Structure formats: structure tokens, C-alpha cells
């Protein structure tokens, strides 16, 4: 079960990505993605989704964990690029769970 610290990490990462989008620090992978725009970010998200699917078919949990971490990171980059708060997605998920 997740802890408050683990959930807060996602919000910390979201805040960091928002700052990176504003400041565009040199040498940052996030900066590279934000400079290339939504098409590149969406492409990377798609690639990571496919890699997660492939990893899930293999026997190693570590591969699934690594690819899922990449997938979540790129999803957060996409949300920040689109100015969609993570809370908005979570609220939608909560609404759906009540149906």
C-alpha cells in the first residue's frame, strides 16, 4: 500500500517539471522534451507504453517496474506540457470509481 511520502513524491515531481518547463535549464532531459514540444512528448509516452507492455510479457518484475516508472514520468511531462494538473486526473479516476 502506498504511503503519504510516495504519493507526495508524484506531486514533488510534478512541481519540478512545472519549474523545468518555465526555466528550461540546460542539460535537463525534461528541458529537451519541453523544447521539442507535444509531438515528441506524446511519441515518448507511446514508446514507453509499448515498452511497458512488452516488459509485462516477460518474467522479470524489475523490467515492468523500470518501464512503468518511465511511463509515469513521461505521462507527467505530457500533463505539465498541456497544463493539466495531476489532481484533475486523480479526481476523474475517483469519479469513475464511484460508478
> What does the largest sheet look like?
none
Domain module count: 1
Tell me the name of the CATH homologous superfamily: MazG-like
> Total number of β-strand segments?
0
SS summary, helix count: 5
In terms of DSSP E residues, the strand content is under 5%
What is the global morphology? globular
* Secondary-structure element string: HHHHH
> Are there runs of 5+ residues with pLDDT below 50, and where?
none
Name the average pLDDT.
95
Give me the CATH fold name.
Answer: Helix Hairpins
From the alpha-carbon coordinates, what is the Rg to the nearest angstrom? 15 Å
Query: What structural category do the secondary elements indicate?
Result: mainly alpha
CATH architecture: Orthogonal Bundle
What's a concise summary of this model?
By secondary structure, the protein is mainly alpha-helical.
What does this structure look like?
This protein is mainly α and 99 residues long. It has one domain: MazG-like (Helix Hairpins, Orthogonal Bundle). Helices cover 82% and strands 0% of the residues. It contains five helices and no strands. Helix 1 packs across helix 4. The protein is globular. The two termini are 23 Å apart.
Descriptive labels:
99 residues, 5 helices, Helix Hairpins, mainly alpha
Task: Give the topology, please.
Layout (H helix, E strand, L loop, with lengths): L3 H20 L5 H8 L1 H20 L3 H21 L4 H12 L2
Protein name: Phosphoribosyl-ATP pyrophosphatase
Subcellular location: Cytoplasm
GO molecular function: ATP binding; phosphoribosyl-ATP diphosphatase activity
Amino acid at each position: 500500500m502506498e504511503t503519504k511520502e510516495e504519493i507526495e513524491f508524484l506531486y514533488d515531481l510534478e512541481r519540478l517539471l512545472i519549474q523545468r518547463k518555465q526555466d528550461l535549464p540546460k542539460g535537463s532531459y525534461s528541458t529537451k522534451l519541453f523544447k521539442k514540444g507535444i509531438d515528441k512528448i506524446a511519441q515518448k509516452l507511446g514508446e514507453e507504453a509499448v515498452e511497458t507492455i512488452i516488459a509485462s510479457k516477460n518474467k522479470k518484475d524489475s523490467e515492468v517496474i523500470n518501464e512503468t516508472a518511465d511511463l509515469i514520468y513521461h505521462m507527467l511531462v505530457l500533463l505539465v506540457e498541456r497544463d493539466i494538473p495531476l489532481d484533475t486526473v486523480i479526481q476523474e479516476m475517483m469519479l469513475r470509481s464511484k460508478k
